[in-house]
Write a structure and sequence with these properties.
Layout (H helix, E strand, L loop, with lengths): L4 H26 L5 H8 L3 H18 L3 H8 L1 H21 L3 H15 L2 H12 L2 H21 L2 H10 L1 H22 L22 H12 L5 H29 L4 H30 L3 H14 L1 H4 L7 H15 L4 H7 L7 H29 L5 E2 L2 E2 L3 H23 L19
Antiparallel strand pairs: 1-2
Length: about 425
């Protein structure tokens, strides 16, 4: 721990600003679920079109996956975070005032572009302002902050939309995001030395340009051991976020007759489960088991099983069982956080940024495609019913869409079984003779 109280105060202030930005970015990620009916009514769009609108967010993450790190390295995390926040703010306001669907699409694109750099900028700041033996704790808290944002995008956001309308709510969210961006520019500094303090940690070697990043990509992509954890995490993230971030609330309102606030509150239990499970699975892997593959496989098996009652008509859960089911889904799905350790420990430790970016690509691509595919399945099964300008889908349509989720979760379980067991240490050099 740093003995200088000024450093301690400053670093937690920086932590708070960056965490707030990530909180808002996660809120944007899952907000479409709460306003799905409003968007379909306002723009007269189908489920497939709505899926495409929601999917633009993760598509931008895929496009930025291998360049966000170089932006942080060249412009610095302070200005990357501030500019990312301003871009999110502009996108949220544009989305809220959009007169036609094309403008709403452009707003959502701006939100995705701004959000895509936030986590990497935050992690870079944590690496600079905290000692190496503190980094695991503070970086692990990103999952708690992110899922807190998902909780905000459930019941509180639903209440705001009910009280003020969805357009006004997104304009306000944009204004708050702009204030956070300004705060980041004023408060955040890239490293302690920028304020005359002594460096707290050895600065890791990072790529100085996009060209340097691109030169390292074949080493990561061509490593067969990188793929299983990335694909396993992709299957979990895609299915979980497609449910929480878009189709969960419409499912509960149309199949179970829940009001929007009650539906959002019930779906929020997935995020609660994630917040409990993420530190738990990390502790089990690091401290108790000393293994990576075993907790990955065990948690993923439970996660895949959670889709059975949603996909099979004969197992459709009673309303009283939905809460426990969704909490268990989030708890078991939290195993996706192991992807970073599993992927890092089978690759060159000097390529950590590229590894993180590469893992993001299939994770967000799967999420984007699944939202659209589920919308297509719902539209195919639509029986022509409309209420207040919103398409009403029968239970069978949702069960068909959730069958796809069950298949992807099962495939993720198989991928987890192929994860290289590293026993919590980097094994890259051991697999390459002559490399120290």
């Amino acid at each position: 721990m740093s003995a200088d109280p000024r450093v301690r105060r400053r670093r937690w202030l920086i932590y708070g600003v960056a965490a707030s930005m990530y909180f808002v970015s996660y809120l944007h990620r899952v907000a479409p679920a709460v306003v799905a009916a409003d968007l379909m009514r306002a723009f007269s769009i189908s489920a497939a079109t709505l899926g495409n609108l929601a999917a633009i967010y993760p598509y931008t993450f895929v496009a930025m996956a291998l360049v966000a790190g170089s932006l942080v390295d060249t412009a610095g995390p302070r200005w990357t975070l501030a500019c990312g926040g301003l871009t999110m703010a502009a996108g949220a306001v544009l989305f809220g005032v959009a007169p036609v669907f094309a403008v709403a699409f452009a707003g959502r694109l701006l939100v995705g572009l701004g959000a895509s750099v936030v986590l990497i900028a935050w992690l870079t700041l944590l690496a600079e302002w905290f000692h190496p033996d503190e980094f695991a704790m503070v970086s692990g808290s990103t999952q708690v902050v992110g899922n807190a944002g998902a909780l905000m995008a459930a019941t509180p956001l639903a209440l705001l939309v009910e009280a003020f309308g969805w357009r006004e709510t997104f304009v306000v969210i944009g204004a708050v995001t702009a204030l956070l961006a300004a705060l980041a520019a004023l408060v955040v500094r890239d490293r302690p030395e920028a304020m005359g303090f002594i460096s707290l940690a050895p600065r890791p070697a990072r790529a100085a340009s996009l060209a340097d990043v691109l030169r390292g990509i074949p080493l990561v992509v061509g490593n067969a051991h990188t793929w299983p954890p990335a694909l396993a995490a992709s299957g979990v993230y895609a299915t979980e976020l497609a449910f929480v971030g878009l189709w969960g609330v419409p499912y509960l309102t149309q199949v179970y007759g829940f009001e929007r606030v009650r539906a959002a509150n019930t779906i929020a239990l997935v995020a609660v489960g994630m917040m409990v499970g993420a530190p738990l699975v990390g502790w089990l892997s690091d401290r108790w088991l000393g293994r990576r593959r075993l907790p990955f496989v065990g948690f993923l098996g439970v996660y895949a099983a959670c889709w059975l009652p949603l996909a099979l008509p004969g197992l459709r859960p009673a309303p009283t069982m939905l809460g426990p089911l969704f909490f268990l889904m989030g708890l078991s799905g939290s195993c996706l956080v192991l992807v970073w350790a599993c992927a890092r420990e089978v690759n060159d430790p000097g390529r950590v940024g590229i590894v993180m970016g590469f893992c993001n690509a299939p994770i967000f691509l799967g999420f984007a495609l699944l939202q659209w595919l589920m919308g297509v399945i719902l539209d195919v099964r639509w029986q022509g019913l409309v209420a207040a300008g919103v398409r009403l889908y029968p239970p069978e349509a949702y069960e068909a869409a959730f069958t796809l989720c069950l298949a992807l979760a099962t495939a993720a379980f198989v991928a987890a079984m192929l994860v290289t067991e590293t026993r919590c240490r980097n094994v890259w050099a051991a697999s390459r003779p002559g490399v120290a």
